[in-house]
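Task: fold both queries, return tokens.
Query 1:
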Amino acid sequence: MDKRLSLALLISLAVSAAAGAADFEELYRAPFTLPETTAPAPADKHAATYFLRGLVTVHPDRTVLNTVDGRVFILELSKEDAAAYDNRAVEIWGKVEASDDLDSLRVSSIKEYTPDPAAVAPPPYKSKFKPAQLLGEADGALSVANMRWLNADAAAHDFTWANVVIRPELVKEIYFVTKVQPPGIAGHSLLFFEFEDGGLADSEGRRSRGFFLSVEAYAREGQAYSLVAGFKKTYGIIWLLTNFEDYALGTAAFGKDWMNFYPVLTDRAGKVRMARDTVELAAVNREGEWYHSTRNNCTNNLVMMINHGLPEGKKVKLWTIPHFIYNFYATTPPMVPGFLGRKGVLGPKAFTIDPENYREHIPLPAAR
């Protein structure tokens, strides 16, 4: 393997995902072996892994899985295997091509499923997470439930939730954001959508500068995030929506980290499309989808969404070697700004929000 590619893979493993600084320090001290780096894998263009239960139905032209919660997946399965499970309840491990392409599931394993009445329910998800829900659309405005919301004068980062209305046509700027942790490790990425006044408001009439998309490991109570565990089908995945104040204050006011903002360089139509598509995909039911520290993580999903706003000739390739090696420049937070900057997709850093200057960007409300 080319030495540069080997180095790229090691860096990819070391800096992917929303990891704490302790994770990285431990990683640098103690080398580890992962299947992806030690043995060639079969050619595979599928990036996101799913575990699902449901009913298989064989039709003349396709085989489908109907899940208990009402989703429908077209199964990539041989006719012989499909016939063996026709009209039966099954559990399936499979993969989809990407988190924005969920119609077809390539089946890795399948077996009949009989519910176990003695099975213990897993712990609930952590209270800082709630999947967004798309409630409807009227005159181009999207009504969304479960946006995490914080006011500018909040005294603590309590996790509260709001129903909001988002007007994609009022999007002003979109930024790729790196969240940097002391001593300077960019361990997480986000997208920030900034709106003209009135582009984002909650059901009480409160307005915000915009919203963040943060794709994260969907951890349950009692689970701590680990970079290495992210390779092992440990966590679900959530596309979290928060208002500007929530994530910015949580990072800089109630934490010790800082955020760098890089503008996405696309036209007006591309920005509107990105805003709309992001909200719609954040509201997709992802139960059964697994977080992966390089192929389905906090960063590559953002690059995928940036592609939604770019013309065909500027779209970023997510695979370095098609279907085999993922493009680490598109999946590791520190690498993306420079890589996409050279491609003309991101502009230079526009501003930083940190513990010293956050009130310049999130002023307290005027006294009444």
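Query 1 returned. Query 2:
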Amino acid sequence: MSPQLHLPMELIRMICEVSDQSTLASLSRVSKALHTVVEDYLWINYEWDGSSRVVKYLQRIIEKPELASLVKHVNIHFPGELEYDEVLESNIVEPLDVPKSAIPSLIASSPEVQDNWKNEIEASDPSAFLALVIALLPNLVSIRVHTRALQELDNLCELFDWVSRPEDKEARMSSVHGGHDPAFPHLREVYITSTDRASVEPGWERTNHAMDLLPLFYLPSLEHITAPIHLQDNFSWGRPTQPNAENIKSLDISMIREANLARVLAATPLLEKLDWNWCSRLDMDPLYPVPIADKHINLQRLSVLLGKLSETLTHLKITGSIRRLATEDGRFEGMFTKLVDDGNLGIFTPLTKLQTFHVPLSFVLGLHDPHKSDPLVLARNLPSNVEYLTISDEKPDPDDAHWLPEEIILVVKAYLSCWKEWTPKLVSLKLEIGSKGADLVAEELADVVASSGIQFQIEANPFPWDLSDSTDES
């Protein structure tokens, strides 16, 4: 008998709980007895890399449904990157290497497949196999997907839509192998991310594919969503009524503007955490063929929609990026028009429950010259109970991507001289600054930081897509 089996069973299980898949696989080969213990943990986390292993996994689930009930977490990664032309094609995924003999039994495992996914299964489409696997896992807690483009998830989005309709429950139970309702009653978290290029060039994602993710808001157990919800003026829930997603506590969404963000937040009235990428929109450029009615960041509208979350929101992160495009004559043009800062800049002061706050300086300062503004403008416009504050120097101006170091120094120095009066609970201040200005800002703020007594950090944040120094002379 191997030495490992002399360990108390509780200790063996504790080791399994903190071990990765590779370690678990090694443990399972030590002995048959240990394999029996470890196998449960091997099934708790399922990882798929786009290979044909998904077919073998499907076959095991169909043969032994009790194994499917053990799976709690699914992690899917579509490898590689795509060129723009490939993303525009309807079929962008390489077929799996699936034995033809296996296909009939896989289709027969779910009568629903006969109508919806039969053609995709027969064509060995990874998206269909992925959706079929997930449909057979009744106890999922989290789903993580890294995709090159959302159309890789067409079948998965169809599944989300199907399981989020209560009126279809009876049909679902009769259609899925094992007779369970694949409505994900335990699902708490869904993370869907795209490649870096797709995340900063939303033109790579079609609006209809992003809207296919909206059924997630109808899943009653879901608490967190991370997704590139790229929506324009044709926003539609696709149902007679909007969801009442009081269960959703955390959102991390990008490629969405204020008007549509308002619709999403109206459906999540008890939201506690919001991460919002506010300006990565290729279609804001006039040269891009997809129009958008509002080309400005409307602070007044933002103030109204955030105000509705003043009693629940404890974490708010707003990020942005300045993306410059090369025109035909070789010049670089900024993508974004200037920030609309009319109305009250203090849009965050009503958020009295906010503890963690990450914001571009422009959202609390406007676009005015700090030398001509109220020196306490930053202090006045911050939530009073903030504890952890991060300020980034992105500037939504076509001609000027970042605030100048001397402007940042002026504003932050004034704030640090009186922070206890305006934000008495502050514990930490972090500045994210373009790499050229970070050292100067750190040097000039050293004395006032030392006397402030708060934790302070400066992070050089060079944006690889910021081409503000490029010229047409190269």
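Both queries returned. Flag for query 2: The chain has a mean pLDDT of 74.
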